Amino acid sequence: EVTPEFTQNLPKAELHVHIEGTLEPELKLKLAKRNHVDIGQESIEDVRATYQYDDLASFLAVYYPAMNVLQHEQDFYDLAMDYLQRAAKNNVRHVEIFFDPQAHTSRGIAFETVINGLYRATVDARALNVDAQLIMCFLRDFSRDSARETLEEALNYKDKFIGVGLDSDEHNNPPMKFFHQFAKASAEGLHLTAHADIDQKDSIEHIRELLEVIGVERVDHGTNIVEDPDLVEFAAKNKIGFTSCPLSNSFVSPFMKGDEILELLSKDVLVSIHSDDPAYFGGYIGDNYYAFADKYNLTKEQVVTLAKNSFEASWISREQKDLYL
Ligand code: HPA
Ligand code: ZN
Questions:
Q1: Predicted structure pTM score
Q2: CB 3.0–4.6 Å: which of 40, 156, 247, 274 could bond 281 by disulfide?
């Protein structure tokens, strides 16, 4: 029987976690005080009372304003270190962490402040036995020019992150809007992934663009690919990873998209379980595994396959993967 202890202790790779989505109410209040930022909330209950959302847009409307408390390099360090301690408790052995520089540069925080704070935490995480890397995401509701400028600046810190991703509001913001930035990032040796959010109207076309034109190695969410058997076959053959997040899925779908995850598993697609924005959606990676396993009565073998998939879909070397598997 799969227990919460089993899912927590299983060695895992976390491939879909937004560092800004790990901002717990406690740290938010502490940083607001430290930086004298008036957030209009004074208690944990006040903060939690703002957590009302039932789709991507209503979530993002709560998510971005919370970031105002992040001002200094130390704040980004503290945010990431808090998360990495929770990751260690969940036996996350390897993590590829998303960050959204434009959510900070657009409010006057230097790129350097953001990446240096986060990166320093990833170095210190080695003491926790967590191998941590960073993935820089473009905000898809920002302009192409903003993405180009962000990548140009990021390339000055190329040794501090391993790939690029794409997140934020997908509506009317298809992946092809960022074709050139993905091509440039790839030419620079960076890995590629992108969100295809499951509640978005053109999502299947966006997945097609990602796989057939842009050439991403992973799709974040995207389990609705099951609608298109040819694309599923392509994904299986090319070992494309799908990073699904049951607890955030449950905000847009009553069954946390478990039927899609199981269908992909049965077709040998590299689907795996992650936590998205754990401070906002009710749990870290062990909780996500457990919620899914419990609702669908998964066997231990199925849960272990999901964890193996997480290492397979990660961007560590073959030798390192074989050590974990
Ligand atoms: N989708 C899009 N943007 C996001 C998400 C997500 O799941 N989490 C944080 N930003
Ligand atoms: Zn996400």
A1: 0.98
A2: 247
Q: How far is the CA of 135 from the centre of ligand 2 (A)?
A: 12
Residue 195 Cβ < 6 Å to ligand 1: yes
Q: Does 167 sit in the ligand 1 pocket, CB within 6 Å? A: yes
18 is in an annotated binding site: yes
Query: Do 194 and 210 contact (CB within 8 A), yes or no?
Result: yes
Give the count of domains, the chain: 1
Residues 36-81: tens digit of each pLDDT: 999 999 999 999 999 999 899 999 999 999 999 999 999 999 999 9
Per-residue confidence band for 223, with pLDDT thresholds at 50, 70 and 90? very high
Q: Among 14, 18, 23, 64, name the best residue to mutate to test ligand 1's pocket (greatest count of ligand atoms within 8 A of Cβ).
A: 18
Please report the beta strands in 173-310, taking only residues with DSSP state E, as ranges in sequence order: 191-196, 218-221, 241-244, 270-273
Cα of 143 vs centre of ligand 2, distance in Å, is: 20
Angstrom distance (rounded) from CA 36 to CA 38: 6
Q: Render pLDDT for 76-128 as a digit per residue (tens, 0 to 9).
A: 999 999 999 999 999 999 999 999 999 999 999 999 999 999 999 999 999 99
Give me the interface pTM, i.e. the ipTM. 0.96
Residue identifier of the C-alpha nearest atom 2 of ligand 1: 168
Give me the domain span that covers residue 10. Answer: 4-324
Q: Measuring CA to CA, how many Å separate 217 from each of 103, 190, 193, 251?
A: 24, 11, 6, 26
For residue 299, the domain's CATH number is 3.20.20.140
